[in-house]
UniProtKB/TrEMBL annotation, chains A, B:
The encoding gene: dapE_1
UniProt keyword list: Hydrolase, Metal-binding, Protease
GO BP term, pick one: proteolysis
Superkingdom of this protein's organism: Bacteria
Transmembrane region(s): none
Protein name: Succinyl-diaminopimelate desuccinylase
Glycosyltransferase listed as a keyword: no
UniProt domain Peptidase M20 dimerisation: residue ranges: 202-360
Enzyme Commission numbers on file: 3.5.1.18
GO molecular function terms attached to this record: metal ion binding; peptidase activity; succinyl-diaminopimelate desuccinylase activity
Entries under Pfam families matching the protein: M20_dimer, Peptidase_M20
Amino acid sequence: MSLESVLARIDSDLPAATDRLLELLRIPSISTDPAFKDACQSAADWLVADLTSLGVRASKRDTPGHPMVVGHVEGPEGQDVPHLLFYGHYDVQPVDPLNLWDRDPFDPAIEDTAKGKVIRGRGAADDKGQLMTFIEACRAWKAEHGALPCKITFFLEGEEESGSPSLVPFMQENAEELTCDLALICDTGMFNPSTPALVTMLRGLLGEELTITGPAKDLHSGMYGGIARNPIRVLSSVIANLHDAEGRVTVPGFYEGVPDLDPELKAQWDGLDFEPESFLGEVGLSQPAGETDRSGLEQIWSRPTCEVNGIWGGYTGEGFKTVLPSKAQAKISFRLVFQQDPLKIRESFRAYVQSMLPPDCTVDFHGHGASSAGIMETSAPSFEQARQALSDEWPEAAAYVGCGGSIPIAGHFKKILGMDAMLIGFGNDDDQIHSPNEKYDLNAFHKGMRSWARVLEALTRG
Amino acid sequence: MSLESVLARIDSDLPAATDRLLELLRIPSISTDPAFKDACQSAADWLVADLTSLGVRASKRDTPGHPMVVGHVEGPEGQDVPHLLFYGHYDVQPVDPLNLWDRDPFDPAIEDTAKGKVIRGRGAADDKGQLMTFIEACRAWKAEHGALPCKITFFLEGEEESGSPSLVPFMQENAEELTCDLALICDTGMFNPSTPALVTMLRGLLGEELTITGPAKDLHSGMYGGIARNPIRVLSSVIANLHDAEGRVTVPGFYEGVPDLDPELKAQWDGLDFEPESFLGEVGLSQPAGETDRSGLEQIWSRPTCEVNGIWGGYTGEGFKTVLPSKAQAKISFRLVFQQDPLKIRESFRAYVQSMLPPDCTVDFHGHGASSAGIMETSAPSFEQARQALSDEWPEAAAYVGCGGSIPIAGHFKKILGMDAMLIGFGNDDDQIHSPNEKYDLNAFHKGMRSWARVLEALTRG
């Protein structure tokens, strides 16, 4: 039986697969720091070589930033199977603060922990370990069957952790080459360690930076305190007024294009074992702080938000300085859902802030990213096929879930290439991605490979 | 006539007096920066030598920080005249940002400007130029009369710009030596360039630093945005709620001990040529932002305030990071008036902030300075004598004014030595103290010396 032998091969090859991952993890491919430019090249070279060893026609493709790795491989002759694209990213987050790591982030190792063996190192979960689950599944398939089950295009990025500046232009310039029937993306997580997940709803993201100016220069609060407009107080009022007492965002028109959740999906979510108290308990909190009339999963998956990510103004050093500052600034981001229009919300937000300003204040805005939410086409048969395949591998049935974060790549595939995407990943909440001591469960790595073998089989069964 | 000859001597000696001041200004006695410790010693030495040349028994007195300069001189025998203390400070503010200075801050010079000649350099107005107005007046008096008109104790500090850590202990240890009949303090300004002022109301200062903690660590706003408590939003709400719509501070009990202004003084203030629009216009503002039912002078002189001097939290660097931070912090200061009790207000403020916190938030407080307001005993005859003397020198009659800032020394003299203080100074609003390009008008220096000669004459006329 074709799948069983691939799974057995994956099991017996686990030590070698782990060694290959450790090798890739040793390359410090931090994309955001120019000092690691060569390492990004090395990681791309490593992947080109590894894909080539699988019979993939792979190459490193230059961009103004770090290179893309693109590879193509044919499937068996004469079968009517989909042409799949696989996406992952080989770049990793910076590692500071380095002193909070228990080991060199780029000297990865297998560690025994109370919860089982983990692969510890920067990029283990985000995203090198994840992308290798797919490549290893392909390797086992190729070894057992001499060819992959379908035509596959590999598309590996090196700038995901630094805003993907080259991604859209590259996709536009190479649209024909990259267009397949379906994209598989491995950069997400499990619902919990025993419940696999397909992410079918992604929140969009709108970033705004605002600078409120009052006096023309910093003033002494003795001389001017009381009579002069203080931009920190103005900014605080603006922020305090962005939500009402029920936790709803007050920006006019904000909820346009935000329907209530489909009752069937809501029922599925209500059936998931999600306790806001324990989800929040892990970060020292106990009560959901969002819209008072929405469940915890709705708050993080299907409801839009407005958060302040940074604020600063005046004197922030040691001791005290009685300055009355000229400016106060904040970075504010919105998570968007369903059909919310980021550019319309940007406009409405800016007008709303303007309308709240007292006399003698001005505001300047600087826009950061603006991406719509992503909603997957779960009515396509491939989604139920993949869901069943994942359910076969793991203790619990796979779930369609939302994702609070933004993974713009899925939207790009849809918009630029007209291609649907399926987001499957094996990360866990405690993987510490973007933080010190990042890890990937060895079990996630192993069963991740097995999951992909099952998904490939299910999608190409014909 | 004894005063006229002193005034003439001051006039003829102006070039030499200016040279002496330039010499003192060349010593970079920045008290807050340990790199300038030796310079503070040199400034103290310079003053000891200069006072000694006047026949003052002066010496440098060690403290755990920078030294005090203390000197004593006798007046004429057998006259019933007050024993005066003169206070000033020889330390200066740091000079950064250095690139905003048009010349080396410690290479002072006389410059011609559209408004007349100025002495440009760090410390010219705050406080070396001011303290020298008094010493030069004494020098001229001594030269003309062979002795000063009364017994004078000189008390010059070197830590005023860095919080005066040694001041209170030194005063306590040397209380007997320092106790006189009246203290003269030269560290304040004119009401305007033609109207001299005696500061008779000083606002007190209470500093509080608060840290609001929500989640135990920084979170990703994709994963937790909406459901997790954001301390920046909590802090913003707290700050927004510290004032009501009329600009009044909402801290319970805040206005205890704050009477309405004495009608006579209010009438005097209303008669002063103060246009909030032009006061604010110089710093790019146009409308008073304080209590809506109080005049501009009340807002800055006799009403208490609550201002935010600094705020920070989350990601404040270039670009965008969708962090949901664990902590948000602010530095808040209160200017206090009349009988407001700083410690009671601190307690009330802390309880009030606590009461505003939503679930899952904690707050830590760190107290900075806490000083009461200072109210001078203007009913003492010496005040009217000095006011007349100043009025004789300048185009406009001298005014009793308030001061928005805090000059704790006056309170210390009262509390520790039981001695009233009189604050007379010749600074102007455009002196740029604490900022680049500090200056002192040559006219202020010249007429300041003449003013002191007149005040000395008036207070010792008998």
